[in-house]
Amino acid sequence: MLPVWTKLTKLLDVRTPVVLAPMGAVSNGELAIRVSQGGGYGFIGTDLNDPISFSKELDTARSRLGVVGPDAPLPLGVGYLGWLLDKGNRTQQLLNIALEKRVQSVWLSFGSNLGKWVEYVRQYDSQRTIEHKTLIWIVANSLEVASRAINEWKADVLVLQGCEAGGHGHSEALPLISLLGLVKSKFSNGPPLVAAGGIVNGAQIAGLLLMGADGTVMGTRFAATVESSYSPNQKRGLVEATKSIRTLVFDTINGPTQWPDGINARALRNKAIFDVEAGVDFEERKRLYHEAVKNDDTSRIAIWAGSSVGLVNDIPSTLNKNKDLVNQVHQELIDSLRDASGFLG
């Protein structure tokens, strides 16, 4: 299959500009490995990992991806929430493990001290006995954050997350098309720009590449795959859904949210939200929610989903002979780019 060459695919040495989002409780090592094996780029989400299992996941990835020698870069990435890193302890330990294992990329998002962690990674790399540069990906929801990521933090890759993205994002984020256009107009010679938010197929990717993106992040589409860590009920919920909404209900159900100011999340609308609208007492809502979690009852538990969830209509394997999702999306991208050329002449 033909490769698609962009600043991002050349930087990562991959054949398709499809990136797996590092979703907590979704993007496990198996999913990241399969996306990378398919020619895309996999990220592992870390917020629910313990150090021992995480270290084993990275060792497994090194073996499965055919990386020879412990000093060779591991061609995938790991995602970290800035506000969890600020709390130290386990999350910082997970970052140290990833750096020790020479992952190619680290994804940083949602924190008031991201610059501190950029410097932490740079310092770690500078002290290695064998040279290795970790690529730092920064998530930006606004032109202001994008400017800091490029000018101050010298991000290697900038992820532009629009309001369409499933899971957490800024409540005042622009639509992706507007955010991408704005940042592209200001930083045409900057790092690779990766578009995130509501992307589930190759046609959408083609449109974003034509607008100036160098790659795209897919979350919801990969959440509804055999390999994702979502439960079978959550995956069916994605397939049956037609839309999602932005809300703080699921974050506040356990008390005050620890996410930075302005952050909320996009999820499927369900009884947990209906309970708030009906004025159900908080303690009762909390009881009902935890009972639902125990029973994997998706009528109340959180199912994070982007704005294009209505276009997700199956639960394929990420990489197999019968229905290879990465190659399917890549072929849709190729076909769409060919179709676009037909408008000329």
From TrEMBL:
InterPro entries: Aldolase_TIM, NMO
Source superkingdom: Eukaryota
Keyword terms: Flavoprotein, FMN, Oxidoreductase
Molecular function GO terms recorded: nitronate monooxygenase activity
Pfam assignment, any one: NMO
Signal peptide: none
PANTHER family linked: 2-NITROPROPANE DIOXYGENASE, 2-NITROPROPANE DIOXYGENASE FAMILY, PUTATIVE (AFU_ORTHOLOGUE AFUA_2G09850)-RELATED
Protein name per UniProt: Nitronate monooxygenase domain-containing protein
Native organism: Clathrus columnatus
